Hints:
This protein has 3 helices and 3 strands. It is of the alpha+beta class and about 80 residues long. It has a 3-stranded antiparallel beta sheet. The radius of gyration is 12 Å and the shape is globular. The N and C termini lie far apart (about 30 Å).
Amino acid sequence: MFEFDPTRPKWQQIAEVVRQRIASGEYPVRGLISEVKLEQEFGVARETVRKATAALRKEGLIVTTRGMGSFVAER
């Protein structure tokens, strides 16, 4: 289980982890970012994961297609 820093919001920490995974190539371009898997991995509510993905979407790192999911954006 991921150890959260109690001084920072969980969604920010999750976004940071996903950001690092995108940068390292662990999450490839056009690869699916599963909210369900992130929920399970971090042991948080869906809303927390959605805040993280919203931040990443705003940064242009991921794109979300309704009914399909969130994917790593092309650089």
